[in-house]
Design goal:
Strand order of the largest sheet: 3-2-1-4-5-6-7-8
Oligomer: single chain
InterPro entries: NAD(P)-bd_dom_sf, SDR_fam
Distance between the termini: 48 Å
Protein name: NAD(P)-binding protein
Keywords: Oxidoreductase
Shape: globular
Pfam family, one: adh_short
Organism: Rhizodiscina lignyota
Number of strands: 8
């Protein structure tokens, strides 16, 4: 019965309960999007262009693919000269630092940073820095970029025109069930960083939980009257290239075809990525999904949720500080 209810909810989300198409003007605003050459990031870029953004930075790993995306964006929005393609490799701290430095030095202002780049991995593999790849890119690297962009966002923000730092997260963070071994560990991130426990979907959800912990901590540090609105968003179950590393077998292909029936299009999913940066202060520190600010879920609704959030967010900073001490020493 619970499985049928779950499928009914997916069907309702995919085919009936679509988020509204944003209509707010972004005239005169500069928007930065990572993972912008395809999927949700690209569709969000198109929407920002159609809504009048004056400059859109397409953060991409491949310049060639970024230039192709730029051409398509210009054709669909019928606006030329507003998009720039900048390279950023979210697996490299040096690349992330260079990207953030370029934003700080070359942009007159930055109104929105939409950190959308993410991965779904189906085999255990560690990054250059020793972390499982989803934990690395979806959490650690994304948090690093957010921290590095905050000074530029603060500099650009005005009381009547607040800047936004928006993290693309996932409602799957609510599904993480932390065992006592992990929950009571003095090093929670390290306790998960092992091949023995690795499962693709649970680790994807875990990476998004870690991201949510950091987002909430950053929002709390920014304060209740923020200069920058720090927030998060889930587009729902969407047809994207996130699972591009998936090894396809006939059975998996069939299952994938069934799943697409319950998925939103990237255009529909991207609506939430745009609307989240129109919420104002009420969106600060929140989780936006299905056109609603969602109640706390997962560990955040548990008695020790605050303690776990603080521990995980501190561990993320400590992990980053090992490899980028010159940048992160100024963040505390």
């Amino acid at each position: 019965m619970s499985a049928l209810i779950g499928l009914a909810r997916l069907f309702y989300s995919a085919w009936i309960n679509h988020p509204a198409n944003p209509t707010a003007s972004f005239a005169g605003k500069t928007i930065l999007i990572t993972g912008a050459n395809t999927g949700l990031g690209f569709e969000a870029a198109v929407k920002f262009a159609e809504l009048g953004a004056s400059k859109i930075i397409l953060g991409v790993r491949s310049i060639e693919k970024g230039n192709a995306a730029k051409k398509t964006l210009e054709e669909r929005s019928q606006r030329k000269g507003i998009a720039e393609v900048w390279q950023v490799d979210m697996a490299s701290y040096d690349s992330i630092k260079a990207f953030a430095s370029r934003a700080s030095n070359e942009l007159d202002g930055l109104d929105v940073a939409l950190l959308n780049a993410g991965v779904m991995k189906f085999q255990w593999k560690t990054s250059t820095y020793g972390w499982e790849e989803m934990i690395q890119i979806n959490a650690l690297s994304t948090v690093l970029l957010g921290l590095l962009l905050l000074p530029k966002l603060r500099e650009s923000s005005k009381p009547e025109n607040l800047s936004y730092l928006a993290f693309v997260s996932s409602g799957t963070y609510r599904t993480v069930k932390m065992t006592p071994e992990h929950r009571n560990s003095l090093a929670i991130l390290d306790s998960y960083n092992n091949e023995k426990d690795f499962r693709p979907s649970p680790y994807y959800a875990l990476s998004k939980l870690f991201l949510m912990c950091a987002m909430r901590a950053m929002a709390e540090k920014e304060g209740a009257d923020p200069g920058v609105v720090i927030t998060s968003v889930c587009p729902g179950l969407v047809k994207t290239e996130l699972a591009r590393d998936f090894t396809i077998t006939p059975l998996k292909r069939f299952a994938g075809q069934i799943l697409t029936f319950f998925q939103r299009t990237t255009e529909v999913g991207a609506r939430s990525l745009v609307s989240v940066v129109t919420l104002g202060k009420k969106g600060h520190g929140q989780f936006w999904q299905h056109d609603q600010i969602q109640k706390d879920g997962g560990i955040f609704a548990e008695a020790d949720g605050k303690k776990l959030q603080e521990q995980i967010s501190h561990e993320i900073l400590d992990a980053l500080r090992k490899d980028v001490p010159d940048i992160l020493d100024q963040q505390r």
